[in-house]
Amino acid sequence: MLKVENVTRTFGTKVLTHALKGVSFEIKKGEFVIIMGKSGSGKSTLLHQMGLLDTPTSGEIYIADKNIKELSTGQQTEFRLTTLGYIFQEYAILPELTAIENVYLPMMVNTKSEGTPKSEKAKEMLEMVDLGHRLNHYSNELSGGEQQRVAIARALINSPQILFADEPCANLDTLSTKTVLGLLENLNKSIGQTIVMVSHDPDDQRYADHVIWLEDGLIKSDKYKIKGELI
Amino acid sequence: MNNLRASFFLAYKGIVKGNMGTTLLTVAVMTLAFINLLFLSSILLGLVNTMNRQGINNLYGNIVIEPEDKKSLIVNSKRVTDLVESVPGVTASSRHYKAGGFFTFDKYKNGQNVNTGRYSVLSIDPSVEKNVTDISDAMIAGDYLDDNDRDKIIIGKDISGGYEGSFEKESLGGVVPGDEVVVLYENGIERKYTVKGIFNSKFVQSDKNAFITNREMESILGVSNGAHEIIIKVDESQPESHYITKFKDMGLKESIYPWNDYMGMTASFTQSFTLIRTLLSAIALLVAGITIYIVVYINILNKKRQIGILQAIGIDKVIIVRSYTVQALFYAASGIILGLSILRLLLVPYFAGHPLEFPVGDVRLEVVASEILISIAALLFAGFISGYMPAKKQTDKTILEAIWG
């Protein structure tokens, strides 16, 4: 499903910062992967490379058997729209759109979803994240947790092969965190959604079946959960 | 098609759910920019047209016939007026004699306070002249001439004085109807006239003239059925050149000129004003363009994170750029509609009722369709560039740059 081969990412021109120093791993379909590490370990940078929000300095990333380096800008946009879903750390829904409009916008431009009733599907997605009663609310009328659930619904509307989540609960209270993570876990378990989530909270490991620890731009450990234990 | 719909959807939501204050301010800026594009230019056009119209209505008509080369008089002027009036489209003609006169006005008839001045005296057939010039409608004191008047004269306000004209100091110092003035003509003949009326055509070149009847002038010059000039009024649906060609084709040997050949200094003003109008329009367009660009650019800067998010979730750059371009075009179109409404429904009627009083006449706003179209196209173009450029620049950044700054 996703293969990362010796990826590096260096920032700056005069003073170089090596955020990723050669990272390799593989993610299989249906996995709930958590990338853990301390602040500055390179976990968000790694997620940005996989989510096609940034370009690696070197190395290869394969998603669904496609080397993303070989995709044109237009193909990358199409790939982000149809194959990937992305949830940001901060609530990243558009304030000028209602919850349902935020959700169906990516579907509106997706030629592959033509023929599907968009508002019906968007409504279904919002109901799935338990926001069926908030369809026509704007972001300033939603709590942080609700906004993040709208972002999840939006990320899922085009049935992505992989859902990336960049510390989606960093700005949420405990209850909302539990709700959002429970929702992601449920998605993974019920429909086999492949999820790659960045987190710095070791407690979040309990949701994952694959945990990658990053330290100083390198993989410190890459473990799978087998019978409840990370091996 | 989906992309187009998405662009318009985002633009619509951006306008409807965007900050109302910003939207109103942007539309207000566009409105003022549009009015600015047309207002001063329209005033100047009004000024130019007023000057031209004054020349036609008070001095030259549309066409002037002068004596043949090396002759000082049009002989058998009746023949000429009959001929030109037979041409379809010619509405009237009037023959004039012209003479220089040295005016003397002894206000208190005691030789103590005598004012003098040299002015042009034109002679007219008063009833015919009414069909060609507006002098008869411009009387501000006393009466217009009658065809049989012999010892009567009407004078412009710049001769009489007392009406705060442009040449008050050079005037006769306050002549009123009923006063007597003595005119010494260039041929040495002196006549005493009772001032029958004073006119104010609001055109300085006309208000320094005096009029007597043709019968009176013929007795002074010792001629009959002649003229120094014949001025002709025509239906302006055809250009003057059309009539001039006709007259020549009919065998007129006299010299024939269109009115604008006589405008002299006024024509130079007109050319200067046209140049000024072009420059002002260019500057106004530049200011409008820069203003719109700044307003839209700030709006887009405030939304750069949203642009990054849109790109991150797979919305194509083209959709995003187009949505901001549509928004900018909406602001420009709103400004155009509002600006045009203010111009046509408020400013034009206001200035029609309350014209600006210039020495050359009453000036109204002259908003012409071609300039409106040019201004609309210019503002829409400025709107397009102002929406497209900053949005394109923003979407050309990397997604992370857009989101995190």
TrEMBL record, chain A:
Source domain of life: Bacteria
Keyword Nucleotide-binding set for record: yes
GO terms for cellular component: membrane protein complex
SUPFAM superfamilies hit by this protein: P-loop containing nucleoside triphosphate hydrolases
Keyword terms: ATP-binding, Nucleotide-binding, Transport
Entries under Pfam families matching the protein: ABC_tran
UniProt cross-references to InterPro entries, sorted A to Z: AAA+_ATPase, ABC_transporter-like_ATP-bd, ABC_transporter-like_CS, MacB-like_ATP-bd, P-loop_NTPase
Transport as UniProt keyword: yes
GO molecular function: ATP binding; ATP hydrolysis activity; transmembrane transporter activity
Residue span(s) of domain ABC transporter: 2-230
PANTHER family cross-referenced by the UniProt entry: ALPHA-D-RIBOSE 1-METHYLPHOSPHONATE 5-TRIPHOSPHATE SYNTHASE SUBUNIT PHNL (PTHR42798:SF7), LIPOPROTEIN-RELEASING SYSTEM ATP-BINDING PROTEIN LOLD (PTHR42798)
Name of the protein in question: ABC transporter
From TrEMBL, chain B:
Broad class of the protein's primary localization: membrane
Membrane topology: Multi-pass membrane protein
Entry keyword Transmembrane: yes
Keyword field: Cell membrane, Membrane, Transmembrane, Transmembrane helix
Signal sequence interval, chain numbering: none
Keyword Hydrolase: no
PANTHER family linked: LIPOPROTEIN-RELEASING SYSTEM TRANSMEMBRANE PROTEIN LOLE (PTHR30489:SF0)
Protein family according to the UniProt entry: Belongs to the ABC-4 integral membrane protein family. LolC/E subfamily.
Protein name from the UniProt record: ABC3 transporter permease C-terminal domain-containing protein
Provenance organism: candidate division WWE3 bacterium RIFOXYB1_FULL_42_27
